[in-house]
Design goal:
Layout (H helix, E strand, L loop, with lengths): L1 H12 L9 E10 L2 E15 L3 E8 L2 E8 L5 E8 L16 H10 L3
Antiparallel strand pairs: 1-2, 1-5, 2-3, 3-4
Length: 112
C-alpha cells in the first residue's frame, strides 16, 4: 500500500503544464560523491517532447548552456514557471543562433 501511495504522489507531482517559450526554474538533486544537494537551473524551454522530456536553455554571458530534463525523474524536486509567453513554434531552435540581447528582445515581444 505504501508503494502505491508513493507512486500516486509521484504521478501527481510530475503533472506540470509546460510549453515551449516558458521561462522556468528547475530545482534538481545532484550527487557529488556521498553528498547530495539541490541545484537550480533557470532558462527558457526550447523543446518539449510529449510528456517525457524538455530542454531548457540559459545563457551565461555569450555562452549558451542547454540541459535536458526528464519529466518523471525522481531527481527533479520542483519546477517553477516564472513567465509564460505566446510562441507560434513548438521547437525554438533559432534561439541558438541569436545573440543574447536579440533572444531576450524577441522573448519580450511575444509576451502575452
Amino acid at each position: 500500500m505504501k508503494h502505491i501511495n508513493r507512486l500516486v504522489k509521484d504521478l501527481q507531482k510530475t503533472n506540470y503544464k509546460l510549453n515551449s517559450g516558458d521561462t522556468v526554474k528547475v530545482y534538481y538533486e545532484i550527487k557529488e560523491g556521498e553528498k547530495q544537494r539541490i541545484q537550480s537551473f533557470k532558462g527558457i524551454i526550447i523543446k518539449k517532447q510529449g510528456n517525457s522530456t524538455f530542454t531548457v536553455r540559459k545563457t551565461i554571458g555569450t555562452i549558451g548552456v542547454e540541459r535536458i530534463f526528464q519529466m518523471k525523474s525522481p531527481r527533479i524536486k520542483e519546477i517553477k514557471k516564472i513567465r509564460s509567453v505566446k510562441i507560434r513554434r513548438a521547437k525554438l531552435y533559432y534561439f541558438r543562433n541569436l545573440i543574447v540581447n536579440q533572444a531576450k528582445r524577441k522573448h519580450y515581444i511575444t509576451k502575452r
